[in-house]
């Protein structure tokens, strides 16, 4: 079954919102009313007619029906890898669960016990250029149980941070098993009968000595350990033991393969016997942020209970995001196969610690390239188009689409503040304040925009709900992350509103619901949406799928984590800040490994993709719930773009790989969600920022994604293009920082949201003094940012300005001669490079770019052109355009290649001079030919003007012909035949 689509196209989203609004048009809250919290309140019962969480084949149920008296008190966990044990959504009988993918093993309960699976060969569908997926699906290798067991259902007898203990009772027998992430052991306790392992076929037994029996199924080696003095009996498809009357045993999966020598396999079985009866009975995570080193240390601890003997320590297997950041300890050589890549194993440990570098977040990227000149004018115009109106107009009334509107307003407020446009900033803040205050007030008789607490499920649901956030408890971190992030922006300028005595407590309540940082929270489970050991969020509340739980929008999970960091800093709540830092740093690593596989080591080789849209418990899918378009499959793990999105650029070369796959699978440049995708591309290597900026300038009328604005996209892409790539080698002693590198030069950025100046120390020895309430930069740029609000606005301004110039007297420390809007270019001879670039330097090796067939007559009109750009030219007009393009039509006849060169003198996106040249008739002989300006101008418009940080654009396309052709790019001087454009300017 599928849950609600969680990210619909615009038309579908409007329909869904309309339907939700119609269904949830309530006339009153239930008579129980509202519970006050600070100045806000939440409903204590659902609005009349609202849907409840749905379990057990569509029946609303209390999840406590499916736990035993031994289970912990308080709210039950949802959104976990084992949540289908509580939801019972897998069958009409409300009995067992869907498969539980713990890794390295998977499990599925049945009437006779716990089915066990270890799948090492994935099933793969689709192709490397189409929608497809891979799964290490559950396939039973044996059932662990007790002879004669026939249980009508399975309940949950207990859970810890990443383990669960299902419990069976039937026919006078009981079974309690403990399973968990990273546990190669299954621990069992039984009463009423002999321990029994049941197989679908006859197992290959390779060891039966004393209390140990080793067996192989489907090429996988296991060892069952009975108590000392007990023995195992092998009979056909069953293996049993009396357990010497002591009622406990364990089964271990060995990290061996069919090529492992028998002696090594037996030695491993013998050595692990020391841990077989030290049952894992507790798991806990703790974290600490070392601000001086900008490192988040997370310790994963295991409590063991010795069923016999003494001593501690156990055997644990680590996911790639863990073992790649392991602070100490050496895993053994053999690895397990898993849906997340190779798992490596530590033996004899009671805990392990990861040390993950934190490279900072920002409220927004600084305005280093949009604070002066033509780009300031462009940005100001774009701000005027959206920031003088209501940013919440037209958004849906449910929690998700309200959140998107709040996020949009927060981005505009941050930009307006940087540019000193205080009236526009305050208008956005007023809109945020008004909408949040409305949602945070649950007055009697209110019909919508209300949060209601469900004590049975221990959850806070916003109504109108959407995408199963009510019935399935889906996506709370997605929805509420936008609310919290907007509140964080508001808190910087209106700290009174954010006080716990006012509305800050309601913000904290949303955090507590989605991911409470308090282990003993009386209302909510600890870290509901965040899978502590797997290192990332899960979106589905019930997880009742054959493939386990799932999540597509990892980036909206990161938006939540960033929101916690920003809110915690703005309000002085370090516990919330540090919880956000733990989630953010851990999940950033998990995304690189499992959504991106940026090291190309975790996906099955035959899968062929370099990214997935969705991670499943047993695999991944190049797909989404709502679209098969590559732009959305890849874009859903990028949005929203904020100052917390810089983790996306931590591996710039991978950004290029991801972008190349998008273009390949899409059959060309993106046509939807271009703004989100350009913003991501700007973080890439080898001039990708300039290419993204050129694409944005060339397509000014693109349709914005629903949570974006043209103002924010221009601000982001233009400034990131100027700053360069994220430099992960340098950190700072404040969470609000970033470092960028371009052309070998570093730019250091830090934000200070406090009321006093702050000196920030970077790990390479650089220091930066940041004024109160500002963002400061060094490198090519020295300062950007506006100030806080001395008297926060109480409402929307009655006469909003149409345009606000930046402050005329910048604070001390701003340069008297601010930087130009484009970094300077040192030559007017430009080499045609791959990736849509023109460059003053040649490439590293010849390649070609393919020009699509004309299949018609496009003489004079660019049709599917290859476009190449460079900005930063500076100097007076001199001479005329010249070019030499090495093109080849192979053996095709009747082909004609055409070029157009355009000039934007101020880098504003307006090309005031356009030159279109006659097409060049290529010959049908393989080998390049030289197409130059000597063919003559076909047409031209405008006049040349002096370049002031200006841009050059080259477009090349097939004007005639039914075959594709190529243009040679990236050639070195030694290789020769370099395609070049010489711009008509003397460089200054």
Concise structural overview:
Strand 3 and strand 4 form a beta hairpin.
Characteristics:
17 helices; disordered N terminus; 54 strands; single chain; eight-stranded antiparallel β-sheet; 988 residues; alpha+beta; seven-stranded antiparallel β-sheet
List the helices and strands and how they pair.
Layout: H1 10-23, E1 34-37, E2 40-43, E3 54-55, E4 59-60, H2 84-87, E5 100-101, E6 106-110, E7 113-117, E8 123-125, E9 132-135, E10 142-146, E11 154-159, E12 163-170, E13 173-180, E14 185-191, E15 195-198, E16 204-209, E17 212-217, E18 220-225, E19 233-235, E20 238-241, E21 248-253, H3 262-272, E22 278-290, E23 295-306, E24 314-318, H4 320-323, E25 335-336, E26 343-349, E27 351-357, H5 373-387, H6 399-418, H7 422-439, E28 450-454, E29 459-463, H8 476-493, H9 495-498, H10 504-515, E30 530-531, E31 536-537, E32 550-551, H11 554-571, H12 574-595, E33 614-616, E34 619-622, H13 630-635, H14 652-666, H15 674-681, H16 688-698, H17 710-723, E35 725-726, E36 737-742, E37 745-752, E38 758-761, E39 767-770, E40 774-777, E41 783-784, E42 829-833, E43 837-839, E44 847-851, E45 866-875, E46 882-888, E47 896-904, E48 913-917, E49 920-921, E50 929-932, E51 937-941, E52 947-960, E53 965-969, E54 980-982
- Give me the number of helical elements: 17
What structural category arises from helix and sheet content? alpha+beta
Which shape, going by the Cα principal axes?
A: globular
Indicate the percent of residues in helices. 10-25%
Average residue-wise pLDDT: 90
Strand content: 25-35%
Task: Give the low-confidence spans.
Answer: 1-32, 780-823
- Report the span from N to C terminus: 64 Å
Radius of gyration: 31 Å
Biggest sheet architecture: 8 strands, antiparallel
* Strand line-up of the largest beta sheet: 11-12-13-14-21-18-17-16
Counted beta strands: 54
């Amino acid at each position: 079954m599928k849950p609600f689509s969680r990210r619909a196209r615009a038309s579908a989203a409007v329909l869904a919102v309309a339907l939700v609004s119609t269904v949830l048009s309530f006339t009153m809250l239930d008579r129980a009313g509202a519970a006050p919290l600070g100045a806000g309140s939440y409903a204590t019962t659902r609005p009349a007619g609202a849907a409840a969480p749905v379990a057990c084949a569509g029946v609303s149920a209390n999840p406590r029906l499916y736990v035993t008296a031994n289970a912990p008190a308080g709210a039950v966990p949802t959104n976990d890898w084992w949540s289908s044990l509580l939801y019972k959504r897998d069958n009409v009988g409300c009995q067992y669960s869907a498969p539980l993918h713990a890794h390295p093993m998977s499990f599925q309960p049945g009437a006779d016990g716990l089915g066990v699976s270890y799948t090492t060969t994935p099933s793969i569908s689709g192709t490397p250029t189409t929608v497809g997926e891979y799964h290490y699906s559950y396939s039973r290798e044996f059932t662990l149980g007790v002879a004669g067991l026939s249980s009508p259902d399975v309940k949950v007898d207990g859970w810890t941070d990443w383990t669960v203990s299902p419990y069976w009772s039937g026919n006078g027998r009981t079974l309690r098993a403990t399973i968990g992430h990273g546990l190669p052991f299954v621990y069992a306790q039984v009463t009423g009968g002999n321990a029994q392992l049941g197989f679908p076929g006859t197992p290959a037994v390779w060891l039966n000595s004393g209390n140990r029996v080793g067996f192989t199924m489907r090429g996988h080696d296991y060892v069952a350990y009975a108590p000392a003095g007990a023995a195992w009996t092998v009979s056909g498809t069953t293996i049993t033991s009396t357990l010497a009357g002591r009622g406990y045993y364990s089964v271990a999966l060995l990290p061996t393969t069919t090529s492992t020598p028998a002696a090594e396999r037996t030695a491993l079985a013998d050595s692990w016997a020391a841990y077989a009866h030290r049952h894992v009975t507790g798991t806990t995570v703790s974290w600490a942020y070392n601000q001086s080193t900008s490192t988040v240390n997370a310790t994963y601890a295991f409590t063991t209970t010795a069923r016999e003997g003494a001593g501690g320590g156990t055997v644990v297997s680590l996911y790639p995001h863990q073992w790649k950041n392991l602070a100490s300890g050496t895993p053994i050589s053999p690895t397990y196969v898993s849906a997340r890549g190779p798992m490596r194993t530590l033996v004899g440990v009671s805990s392990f610690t990861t040390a993950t570098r934190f490279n900072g977040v920002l409220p927004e990227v600084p305005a280093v390239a949009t604070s002066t000149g033509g780009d300031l004018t462009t940005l100001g115009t774009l701000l005027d188009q959206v920031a003088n109106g209501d940013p919440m107009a037209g958004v849906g009334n449910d929690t998700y689409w309200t959140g998107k509107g709040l996020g949009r307003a927060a981005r505009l407020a941050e930009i307006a503040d940087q540019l000193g446009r205080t009236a526009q900033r305050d208008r956005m803040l007023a809109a945020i304040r008004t909408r949040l205050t409305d949602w945070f007030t649950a007055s009697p008789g209110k019909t919508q925009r209300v949060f209601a607490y469900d004590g049975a499920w221990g959850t806070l649901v916003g109504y109108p709900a959407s995408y199963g956030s009510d019935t399935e408890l889906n996506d709370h971190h997605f929805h509420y992350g936008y609310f919290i992030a907007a509140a964080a922006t508001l808190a910087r300028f209106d700290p009174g509103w954010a006080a716990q005595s006012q509305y800050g407590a309601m913000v904290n309540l949303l955090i507590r619901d989605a991911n409470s940082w308090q282990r003993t929270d009386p209302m909510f489970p600890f870290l509901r949406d965040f899978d502590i050991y797997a290192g990332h969020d899960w979106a589905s509340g019930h997880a009742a799928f054959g493939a386990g739980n799932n999540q597509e929008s990892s980036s909206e999970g990161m938006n939540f984590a960033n929101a916690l960091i920003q809110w915690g800093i703005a309000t002085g709540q370090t516990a919330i800040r540090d919880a956000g830092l733990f989630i953010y740093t851990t999940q950033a690593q998990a995304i690189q490994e499992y959504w991106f596989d940026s090291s190309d080591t975790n996906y099955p080789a035959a899968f062929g993709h370099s990214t997935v849209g969705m991670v499943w418990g047993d695999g991944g899918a190049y797909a989404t719930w709502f679209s098969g378009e590559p732009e959305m499959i890849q874009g859903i793990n990028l949005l929203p773009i904020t100052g917390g999105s810089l983790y996306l650029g931590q591996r710039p070369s991978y950004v290029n790989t991801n972008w190349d796959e998008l273009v390949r699978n899409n059959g060309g440049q993106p046509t939807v969600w271009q703004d989100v995708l350009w913003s991501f591309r700007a973080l890439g290597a080898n001039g990708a920022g300039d290419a993204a900026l050129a694409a944005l300038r060339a397509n000014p009328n693109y349709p914005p994604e629903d949570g974006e604005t043209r103002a924010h996209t221009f601000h982001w892409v233009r400034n990131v293009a100027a700053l360069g790539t994220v430099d992960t080698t340098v950190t700072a002693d404040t969470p609000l920082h970033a470092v960028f590198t371009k052309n070998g030069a570093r730019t250091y950025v830090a934000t200070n949201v406090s009321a006093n100046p702050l000196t920030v120390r970077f790990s390479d020895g650089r220091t930066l003094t940041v004024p109160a309430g500002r963002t400061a930069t060094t490198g090519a740029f020295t300062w950007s940012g506006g100030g806080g609000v001395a008297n926060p606005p109480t409402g929307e301004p009655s006469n909003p300005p149409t345009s606000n110039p930046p402050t005329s007297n910048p604070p001390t420390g701003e340069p008297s001669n601010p930087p130009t809007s484009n970094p300077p270019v040192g030559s007017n001879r430009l080499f045609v490079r791959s990736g849509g670039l023109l460059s003053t330097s040649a490439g590293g090796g010849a390649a070609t770019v393919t020009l699509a067939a004309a299949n018609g007559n496009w003489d004079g009109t660019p049709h599917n052109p290859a476009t190449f750009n460079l900005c930063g030219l500076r100097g007076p007009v001199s001479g005329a355009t010249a070019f030499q393009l090495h093109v080849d039509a192979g053996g095709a006849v009747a082909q004609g290649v055409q070029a157009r060169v355009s000039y934007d003198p101020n880098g504003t996106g307006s090309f005031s001079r356009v030159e279109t040249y006659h097409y060049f008739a290529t010959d049908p002989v393989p080998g390049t030919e030289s197409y130059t300006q000597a063919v003559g101008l076909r047409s031209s418009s405008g006049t040349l003007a002096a370049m002031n940080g200006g841009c050059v654009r080259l477009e090349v396309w097939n004007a005639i012909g039914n075959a594709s052709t190529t243009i040679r790019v990236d050639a070195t001087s030694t290789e020769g035949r370099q395609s070049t454009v010489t711009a008509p300017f003397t460089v200054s």
